[in-house]
Amino acid sequence: MLWKTRKSKKRINIPTPCGRGLTSTNALKESGFSLIEALVSAAIFGLGFVGVYTIVATSEQTMVKSMQRSQAQMIADQIVDVISTDIDNLDSYEMDLSDCTAPVTADQWDVRGYEWCIRLNDTLGPARASDTRSISVDTIDDDPDDERFGLRILTILIEGNNQNVQIVMKRTFDD
Q1: Environment class of 142 (CB within 10 Å of its CB; exposed 0-12, middle 13-18, buried 19+)
Q2: Which of 41, 65, 69, 167 could bridge across to 158 with cysteines, CB 3.0–4.6 Å?
Q3: Which has the closest alpha carbon to 99: 117, 122, 116?
Q4: What is the three-class DSSP state of 157?
Q5: Alpha-carbon distances of 58 from 47, 49, 54, 63, 155, rounded to whole Å
Q6: Which among 12, 40, 42, 37 has a CA at the least distance from the CA of 27?
Q7: CB count, 10 Å around CB of 91?
């Protein structure tokens, strides 16, 4: 660094760590980061961190919903498999799976419905007012000349988490 002394008009060169001499006028300007530069870089880093955190949180929520959908689909598949083995009693399986009240009788259909309801509650949580969980059986009997006459349609509707998870499964059975 070059300094002028008052008594002599000589310039003194003071070396700096980076190897170049600085004059007294720009010595403070080039000596490091200013407070504003540090704050700006901290703000940029903070915005990047918030962005990454938002992406991670969103992907975690999406993963949880996907797992719940997969588990609800597996339960619906199992319900269809059980009902498919008992086609003669197809109408007995028409039930609401939203309210898990313990069966008062030892009727196998009520017991199965109660077990399915409990499994759905364990997977998706209790059914809310906007959620529908039901098994319905419809018969096509409009026109006897229709080739589909007598066809029975089993519909399983499972909704959970305020309708964020929806499974609709239909299976047809011939009489």
Answers
A1: exposed
A2: 167
A3: 117
A4: strand
A5: 17, 14, 6, 9, 32
A6: 12
A7: 10
The tokens describing 19, both together, are: 């190897």
- CA pair distance 134, 103, nearest whole angstrom: 16
pLDDT tens, 154-164? 999 999 877 77
The contacts of residue 84 (CB under 8 Å, 6+ apart) are 171, 173
Exposure string for 93-108, b = 16+ CB within 10 A, e = fewer: bebebbebeeeeeeee
Give the HSE-up count for residue 78: Cα atoms under 13 Å, Cβ half-sphere.
13
Cα 133 to the center of its chain, rounded Å: 20
pTM: 0.66
Beta bridge partners of 4: 11
